[in-house]
Amino acid sequence: MAWTAPLRLRLDMDALAANWRTLDAMSGTAACGAAVKANGYGLGARRVALRLAAAGCRDFFVATWGEAAALADTGVTLSVLHGVRDEDMAVARAAAHARPVLNTPDQVRRWRGAGGGACDIMVDTGLNRLGLSAGDIAGGLLDGLTIETLMSHLACADEPGHPLNERQRAAFASLAGKTRARRMSLANSAGIALGPDYAFGLTRPGLALYGGVPVPALEGRIAQVVFPEAQILQRRTVRAGQTIGYNATWTARADTEVAILNLGYADGYFRGFSARGWAVHEGERLPVLGRVSMDLVAVDVGTASALAEGDWLAIGYHLPEAAAVSGMSQYELLTGLGVRFG
Ligand SMILES: *Cc1c(COP(=O)(O)O)cnc(C)c1O
């Protein structure tokens, strides 16, 4: 007999595709790729990649060769953002569907020494995370390499007024023609909203594909994709004066009808939702009462009196709002989604 999980992720895959089309249109003449690292930001890299490939996406980004291997049979072309360590070389050389994004002079030498082949290059323009320096490029480090995409990454794209955005854009633009790269790429989701000067030849959204809204300019244009749902394990009446949950942080002022849901911080429903999150039933918000536990959370059933053990409830997970109330980033709310969802 098949076992069914008491919590599930409903994914709106049409919304995912619509978000990609929106970001593609906002990218103007630039191609629009998709970051599917971290298992497609927690949604399942395989189903995300296949759906976006069907929508027309041609450029996919993962962090590691393990993530690339997991997508080897999907037919999509991948760039591996963390490049190649010694330990990666055998796998990287054999991977017809994936190429490395080379980040350091050692990575460039390693790739070149093994015979090279198509690669991408990350250049640092101010994030000071991964990437070659402009000086490395001027010094001839890349001469003779077959470079598909020269890319850089923005530090403050979600702060549209931050002066570092324009400084990075200008530094990156000044590298045009300095390598034999076929195209250039700078913008993540928020970077796309900074305008056409940031699009170059290829954009690399992640968060906004999955319903994240990093900047006001994307509000109303990006649709929610992820809808967690959890089953009611018990319904109970909590009498006036009684408390709910660990540390008794919530006290009933009047007799209260409560549903205990099969969802907790081990599923990525973090403790920041304690007393602040909500479930939804027929348009009504049912507030979280007290602390979120590892596997359980209590909600006020309110006037939804027909709710019973075994019923399913949608969990409030509109990312900008859920991030604001929980204190987590929208990225963490996606990538934290646990493995217990059915
Ligand atoms: C994760 C990542 C992206 C996608 O960023 P979002 O903010 O999720 O749109 C793009 N480029 C690089 C290099 C990344 O690491």
From TrEMBL:
Catalytic activity of the protein: L-alanine = D-alanine
Domain Alanine racemase C-terminal as annotated: residue spans: 225-342
Pfam family, one: Ala_racemase_N
SMART domains in the cross-refs: Ala_racemase_C (SM01005)
Top EC class, one word: isomerase
Cofactors that this protein relies on: pyridoxal 5'-phosphate
TM annotation in the entry: none
Family (UniProt): Belongs to the alanine racemase family.
Protein name from the UniProt record: alanine racemase
Upper lineage: Bacteria, Pseudomonadati, Pseudomonadota, Alphaproteobacteria, Sphingomonadales
Name of encoding gene: alr
